[in-house]
Specification:
The chain is mainly β. It contains no helices and 11 strands. Strands 2, 4, 5, 6, 9, 10 and 11 form a 7-stranded mixed β-sheet that branches. It is elongated.
């Protein structure tokens, strides 16, 4: 009953930028921590960044200084600004959120992913 939908992925050249968006919809009372994960072929899913409801953030060392997570609580959305992209950033990026569904059911929700390809 709660869905996350990612958008903004695509093909970019090394050094380029993309901004990923994730919008939540459904019977939502509140959204707590939101996260971005990624998974490349042959690799396990990796936590990229997290942001709390109060906008405290944490970023993985692999993307530190290049990616920035943010959120808009009024829009039930989370974003990932990706700069200075590298080929190793190529992956399917997934939005994840801890959600309290109305009136008080706690859920962990995943989006279906958006593909980011960094290649010349």
């Amino acid at each position: 009953q709660v869905q996350l939908v990612e958008s903004g992925g695509g093909l970019v050249q090394p050094g380029g930028s993309l901004r990923l968006s994730c919008a939540a919809s459904g019977s939502i009372f509140s959204i707590n921590t939101m996260r971005w994960y990624r998974q490349a072929p042959g690799k396990e899913r990796e936590l990229v960044a997290t942001v709390t409801r109060g906008s405290s953030t944490n970023h993985a060392d692999s993307i530190k200084g290049r990616f920035t997570i943010s959120r808009d609580n009024a829009k039930d959305a989370v974003y990932l600004q990706m700069n200075s992209l590298k080929p190793e950033d190529t992956a399917v990026y997934y939005c994840n959120a801890d959600v309290t569904s109305w009136p008080r059911e706690y859920l962990e929700v995943w989006g279906q992913g958006t593909l980011v390809t960094v290649s010349s």
